Amino acid sequence: MNEKESQFDIFTTPFLYPKLFDDIEEKILSPLSYIRELETKWILEFDLPLVDKEDISITYDDGNIITVEAKLRETYCDLTMVPKCEFHYFKKKITLPGDIDEKKITSTFSNGRLMIYVPKVFRGHKVKIE
Amino acid sequence: MKQIGEMEHPGLLPTLFIENGEIFGPIRIYKKDNLYVIMSDLPFDPEMAFDFAESIIEFAKSNNIGKAIIVSGLESPNRDPNNPKAFGLVTHQKLEKLLYDNEIPKFLSGTIFGTDAAVLSAFRGSKIPALVLYCECHPFFPDPEASVHAITVLSQILKVKIDTTEIQKKLEHLRIQHRNLMQETIAALQEQAERVPPTGRMPKIYG
Hints:
- The structure holds 2 protein chains of 2 kinds.
- Chain A is mainly beta.
- Chain A has strands at residues 28-29, 33-37, 41-47, 51-61, 65-78, 85-95, 106-110, 113-119.
- Chain A has a single domain, classed as Immunoglobulin-like.
- Chain A has no helices and 8 strands.
- In chain A, a hairpin with a 6-residue loop joins β5 (65-78) and β6 (85-95).
- By secondary structure, chain B is of the alpha+beta class.
- Chain B has a domain at 67-195: PAC-like subunit (Rossmann fold, 3-Layer(aba) Sandwich).
- Chain B is 37% helix and 22% strand.
- Chain B has helices at 46-62, 96-101, 115-124, 144-158, 165-169, 171-177, 179-195; strands at 2-7, 17-19, 22-24, 27-32, 35-40, 68-75, 86-90, 130-137.
- In chain B, α1 (46-62) runs parallel beside α3 (115-124).
- The chains are: A mainly beta, B alpha+beta.
- The A-B interface holds A 1, 7, 9-12, 14, 17, 19-20, 29-32, 34, 45, 47, 49-50, 76, 78, 111-113 and B 78, 81, 138, 140-142, 171-173, 175-177, 179-180, 182-183, 186, 189-190, 192-193, 201-202.
């Protein structure tokens, strides 16, 4: 990637590495995700193991909220929890700051990793140099 | 391998793991023949890493251990999953031959920061040589495929057979299972970053 990345990284900017909140009652896992800011776009990456491409839904809502939902290929049992918990879905919402061009959002899915490319919208006017 | 002991540190959050009714500490020592394995299920910061490395060096001296091999990650978001790579770094010249014999490319330039740097510094100042194996991996998600590659390279160096078939079957489950450990590791690194000077960005190699 040739585009310059923002000076902010997940180590200094926790917003770029959203925390996990599993929903045991609804059997929903929170996927790991991280956000990269480039000059012209945001790149959101989600780790979605045990998921097939056709079972992923990505939606954009007003307020810059991107929601990723996915059905697991098979039930995941967390044996470390007492009592043991079963999960069937992944779900996570991410809110991005600033203006984004929602019509040009694209995504790819490979090896259980979902990438969402969200272009930014630049507003402003030219300043004349005298 | 048989578990022969555990390591503790007062700075670590008291943690125990229960498996089939048996209690395990987070840092455990295993042994088989002349091979010892020390593994931690908790991330710890560089200050604790100094103590940790010193203890391992003492342990190595008292058990006539000739060398240490440390497996670490090399942040590589654009790596080719079909062609994983591992690079080596040695603290004492006498281990260079191990890299050459096993065709492991040498890690030539970069910055090592944090826990890895603390552990390497301790070994550099001791008589116990260490080889660090940096395996390309995803920087922020659990990467069991990279772990399998690390195990494969390690088995080649140690000339022991390690069967990874069972791990290969569970790769996707392991990625879910290790989400929390990954998040805790990142949280530990975020705490570390708060303590570095404002000019210092986290480097591309971390530990």
